[in-house]
Specification:
The complex is a heterotrimer of chains A (445), B (310) and C (277).
Chain A: H1 5-17, H2 24-37, E1 47-52, H3 58-69, E2 75-80, H4 85-97, E3 105-108, H5 113-118, H6 127-134, H7 139-143, E4 146-147, E5 150-151, E6 154-159, E7 162-166, H8 167-173, H9 184-194, E8 197-199, H10 206-218, E9 224-225, E10 234-235, H11 240-253, H12 267-275, E11 279-284, H13 287-298, H14 303-307, E12 309-312, E13 328-334, H15 341-351, H16 354-364, H17 377-382, H18 386-395, H19 405-415, H20 426-439
Parallel strand pairs in A: 1-2, 1-3, 8-11
Antiparallel strand pairs in A: 3-13, 4-5, 6-13, 7-11, 7-12, 9-10
Helix pairs in contact in A: 1-2, 8-9, 10-11, 10-19, 19-20
Chain B: H1 2-9, H2 13-54, E1 57-58, E2 68-69, H3 73-80, H4 82-115, H5 120-132, H6 135-146, H7 153-157, H8 168-197, H9 200-208, H10 213-224, H11 226-241, H12 245-250, H13 260-270, H14 274-298, H15 304-307
Antiparallel strand pairs in B: 1-2
Chain C: H1 2-32, H2 54-61, H3 63-96, H4 102-114, H5 121-131, H6 137-161, H7 166-173, H8 178-207, H9 210-214, H10 224-227, H11 241-274
Classes of the chains: A alpha/beta (445), B mainly alpha (310), C mainly alpha (277).
């Protein structure tokens, strides 16, 4: 709110000073400016603005709860960001670059933490708060919350993908997706043999990067190394691990197991294909299970489809190396230009408490960042796969932690799309060259 | 400016009497048009100059400390990058395809609107609805019509699992279709206005001379409408050239469907890369200048009527 | 007889045009009544299997949409009002007076009509955040009214030329100043032209998308076209096609009403502005 104060004052001054008003239009402009940007400050408790990623209203209810629990210390105003992760970043960057003091707390996708922290957009937590905010947090989300050995964001909830399969398809193919050595290759072979499809996220968007990164790190590699060097970070995707990932993506895209419209598929398209008559397998976030149950209630699919759904840990790339599932979720960070740092900190502490971790998981269906939440009986009842989720989040392989994450991710998305054209070793080589050119400013993204 | 000097320089004796009146008219004219003039300068001319300055720097909003003067380097980077030329060709394809189809379709619509008697106001009302509808809405409507899991098009045409948004040409087809649907009314109304101007007597005379309908169209109607056609073409071409909403909503630029406006938006707004982004902005502006120049000089499009300075 | 046959033939083509123009609207309405939970299918149909009102209920209880609707209405109305006032002065001057800079003004309007807005998003964003009007109504109103000015000026100056100016002179002979003659005589005569211009300008502001997504970031100023991509389903991953369509129907209703009521005026405005005889 305070960002518009200068404009308000300026417009009002103009209105007051304009004596010779034969330019009616100019005066009208100034008047409109004054009334439009005027905002009330009724002197109550400070209002903390919390920029949230869209959910089903869970964060809004949590905000109300925390404000109520604060005994009038603060109120919370929730502002919703776009659905798409890249667009969320875009909105926040624009405001923060404008040194906007209205961003008190923000729900931040983990890969963007490094860029924001490096640009000085985030207020770091001190050692004492770090201790309390990270207590009991699973290993995966913990790695994404710090920059240069300082905690800059508090893990709020974490997400991971599981392998979902139709039991009928798996048994017809004679395979066991829950077996520890279940690989992508086996899955593609089984699905092709049964004329069923594998749901993945391969549209040109952040979700595709999630898949590619999971494949590369599961093969023991990395997409980029030496990230501290910023622009001089070294692309590492042209490696045996990157080649393995490219081979799997290309093989699937060119196999009969490729879902229709694979190159446009996001989470929902994958789920739709998986629930349909040709559904066989899918990698996706845990929300798909409750969404499938809702579809039954709405009459979209039969109960037998839900009964047929099984789940397992993310498939391996190499049979003898355990997989590193994707990591998603949301960290809470405090804007560096906030005028209410204490209240913002209180809100972050409240929202990330174990009690609220559990409440939010039950309300919004998003998995908790703290391990103890998964022992709660209500959580175990709502999430029959709670243990696999917890284990997957703990072992997850985060996306590269670099201030140039957006450049890195977009380079990968562009060069790997469409998936039918992905080949090893050409595609990873091209990505590495393109990425380093982009980082050096020699190419446009 | 020249006007003032000429008048002041002319020492006609009669002028002295009216000059008071004339001077007050001039002052009033200036005063009345000043707000429009100032607003236009403030919102377009000034930012454009600002963009030229920014384009000489390597400047990213998320890395303000790294701002350095690089001269024309950003222009070299943009113009040697295949992305610029891919986006240029995409914009070119969409522009040419949509304008060509719209011209033919717009002509047909204009003819029907001109000749139709029963249902005239219905057609004229109906055709205005695509004109008034929000482009983003049009983009969503067409996207969902072609999208595999929600659209009817594949069912109706028996295309099965064909994915329209899976490759470049089919994506461009849907984008262009939405563009055509939305903007044909505009061009057809401009053409209708031109059609009404064609003197009826000339048509009648040609008829008496035994000209066929096709000959009348070619010899009488079209030549008389040339000014209207060229103006409609120029406006639609430049409008199509800045296409942004449709690709943004339908493909987000995937499969080489990104346009030049989209590129400028992405560099400036998404990547907050104001240096290279401003270079793209300036180059985009220059392409528009070139197109307008080609129309005015090359095709001798007469804009004096449009400008109303006759 | 022959004439009637020809006439029927033209009417037939007219019906085809109507189908072409209105068919996508039917699809939009149909989608907006589909059940959000079950409309996805591997064999989608044109019409809903069951018609539900849920999407409209959701959209109107979603503050995202209601605030965007409010912003859209106010921004479009205010920008239209200001653009019409500013353009009216300029158009009057152009139609009636000789003054230095007239050519420059007309050329500038022409240049702006052709201007690629995308070339401005970077500098405007930077200017607006320095001025503190980023993400405010006024931050959108200023560029909207600017880009609406050329069409407004042309349309109105075309209308103004058709006004019988002898009446103004008569008033001036009676001792009225140029300003009084303008206010008392010309404004009432010019009202229809002004009104037509206002409708066309409103369409432009109602439609605008690029600047709306570039210069806003919260529900304080975000307009409907920009907000459509912000809808979300039951979870962050579910894409809310049916909600988007319900919202689209809602924002198309004012367009349809304006077109139905003012068809003649819009027609006259569009054709008068660009190519006049």
């Amino acid at each position: 709110m305070s960002s518009v104060q200068p404009a308000t004052a300026r417009s009002r001054r103009t209105t007051g000073r304009t004596r010779r008003r034969h330019l009616a239009a100019a005066a009208a402009l100034a008047l409109v400016g004054a009334t439009l940007t005027a905002c009330s400050d009724d002197g109550g408790p400070p209002v903390i603005t919390w920029y949230i990623n869209p959910d089903n209203g869970g964060q809004g209810r949590l905000a109300d709860q925390c404000a109520a629990d604060s005994n009038g210390a603060y109120k919370v105003d929730v502002q919703v960001l776009p659905t798409d992760a890249s667009q969320q970043r875009e909105q926040l960057v624009r405001r923060l670059a404008a040194k906007d003091s209205s961003i008190d707390v923000m729900s931040l996708d983990p890969p963007f933490v490094a860029e924001f922290a490096n640009a000085g957009f985030l207020k770091p937590f001190d050692a004492q708060d770090e201790q309390s905010l990270t207590e009991g947090v699973l290993k995966g989300p913990l790695t994404t919350a710090s920059w240069k050995n300082q905690l800059v964001a508090a893990p709020f909830w974490a997400n991971t993908q599981l392998l979902w399969y139709r039991k009928s398809v798996a048994s017809a193919a004679g395979i066991d997706p829950t077996a520890p050595d279940f690989t992508w290759d086996k899955m593609i072979e089984a699905a092709s043999g049964q004329k069923k499809v594998i749901g993945v996220q391969a549209n040109r968007y952040e979700g595709y990067m999630v898949w590619i990164n999971a494949l590369v790190v599961s093969a023991g590699g990395e997409i980029v190394t030496n990230v501290e060097a910023g622009k001089d970070a070294k692309p590492a995707i042209d490696s045996p691990a990157g080649d393995e990932a490219a081979r799997i993506v290309g093989d699937l895209a060119r196999s009969p197991a490729a879902p229709p419209a694979m190159s446009n598929a996001g989470e929902e398209e994958a789920r739709s294909a998986f629930q349909g008559p040709t559904g066989g397998f899918m990698v996706n976030w845990p929300y798909v299970y409750s969404a499938a149950k809702e579809d039954v209630a709405g009459g979209g699919i039969a109960q037998s489809v839900v009964d047929d759904i099984g789940w397992a840990r993310y498939p391996r790339v190499k049979a003898d190396v355990s997989s590193r599932p994707p990591l998603g979720g949301i960290n809470l960070a405090i804007g560096n230009y906030t005028t209410h740092p204490q209240q913002a900190l209180d809100l972050v502490k409240c929202a990330t408490s174990l009690k609220n971790n559990i409440a939010y998981m039950l309300d919004a269906g998003n998995p908790a960042a703290k391990g103890a939440a998964y022992d709660d009986p209500k959580v175990r009842e709502a999430f029959p796969m709670a243990d696999i989720i917890r284990q997957s989040i703990n072992d997850a392989g985060p996306r590269p932690i670099t201030p140039y994450y957006n450049d890195v991710s977009t380079s990968v998305q562009i060069t790997w799309h469409p998936p039918t054209d992905v080949r090893a070793p050409q595609t990873p080589q091209e990505t590495a060259q393109f990425m380093s050119d982009v980082l050096q400013g020699r190419r446009l993204l | 400016m020249t006007l003032t000097q000429e008048r002041v320089a002319a020492p006609a004796p009669k002028k002295a009497e009216v000059s008071d009146r004339e001077r007050s008219e001039r002052r009033l004219g200036l005063t009345l048009s000043a707000p429009a003039f100032l607003v236009m300068v403030f919102v377009t001319a000034y930012p454009l100059i600002y963009a030229v300055v920014l384009s000489l720097y390597n400047y990213r909003l998320t890395d303000p400390a790294g701002r350095t003067f690089v001269g024309l380097q950003n222009y070299v980077t943009v113009l040697t990058d295949p992305l610029w030329w891919t986006d240029f060709s995409t914009t070119f394809i969409i522009t040419v395809a949509s304008v060509a189809v719209e011209l033919v379709l717009g002509f047909a619509f204009a003819f029907v609107m001109y000749r139709i008697i029963r249902g005239r106001s219905w057609v004229r009302t109906g055709i205005l609805i695509p004109y008034g509808i929000i482009t983003v809405v049009s983009a969503y409507v067409w996207r969902y019509a072609f999208q595999l899991d929600s659209g009817f098009v594949n069912q109706w045409l028996g295309l099965g699992d064909y994915n329209f948004f899976g490759q470049r040409w089919s994506s461009l087809f849907v984008i262009t279709l939405s563009e055509i649907w939305k903007t044909t009314p505009f061009i057809s109304l401009l053409l209708l206005a031109g059609l009404v101007q064609v003197p009826e007597e000339m048509q009648e005379a040609a008829k008496v001379d035994g000209a066929t309908a096709w000959q009348r169209l070619k010899r009488v109607t079209l030549p008389n409408m040339k000014a209207a056609i060229m103006v409609a073409l120029l406006f639609r071409t430049l409008d199509a050239w800045r296409i942004f909403d449709n690709p943004f909503v339908m493909t987000v630029g995937a499969n080489k469907t990104e346009t030049l406006s989209f590129l400028a938006y992405r560099q400036n707004v998404t990547l907050v890369n104001l240096g290279a982004g401003s270079a793209v902005s300036v180059l985009l502006f220059l392409t528009v200048v070139v197109i307008a120049f080609i129309f005015v000089k090359g095709f001798r499009t007469d804009l004096s009527q449009v400008r109303g300075d006759r | 007889m022959a004439d009637r046959k020809v006439s029927n033939w033209w009417t037939f083509w007219g019906v085809l045009i109507l189908v072409w123009a209105l068919f996508p609207l039917l699809w939009m309405v149909s989608l907006s009544f589909k059940d959000p939970a079950t409309f996805r299918s591997s064999t989608p149909t044109f019409f809903p299997k069951t018609w539900v009102w849920d999407n409209y209920k959701t959209v109107f209880t979603d503050s995202l949409f209601t605030s965007a609707l409010r912003n859209s209405v106010f921004i479009a109305v205010i920008a239209t009002g200001l653009a019409v006032i500013i353009a009216m002065f300029a158009a009057y001057a152009i139609a009636r007076m000789n003054f230095p800079g007239k050519k420059l003004l007309l050329s500038m309007a022409l240049a702006i009509a052709m201007f690629p807005q995308a070339a401005l998003v970077g500098p405007l964003f930077n200017m607006w955040r320095n001025l503190g009007i980023y993400d405010t109504w006024i931050g959108l109103i200023i560029p909207y009214l600017t880009f609406a000015l050329p069409l407004s000026i042309w349309t109105m100056s075309a209308f103004f030329r058709q006004i019988p100016w002898e009446m103004e002179q008569a008033a001036q002979v009676d001792g009225a100043t140029a300003w009084q003659a303008f206010r008392k005589v010309i404004i009432p005569l010019a009202a229809p032209g002004v009104f037509t211009t206002a409708i066309l300008t409103f369409f432009f502001c109602w439609n605008e998308f690029l600047l709306a997504i570039s210069l806003t970031s919260t529900d304080r100023a975000r307009t409907v076209p920009a907000a459509l991509s912000f809808f979300t389903g039951a979870s962050q991953f579910q894409s809310p096609i049916t909600y988007i369509m319900a919202a689209s129907v809602v924002v198309t209703i004012p367009v349809v009403i304006l077109v139905l009521v003012f068809q003649r005026r819009i027609m006259a405005g569009l054709t008068a502005g660009a190519v006049k005889g």
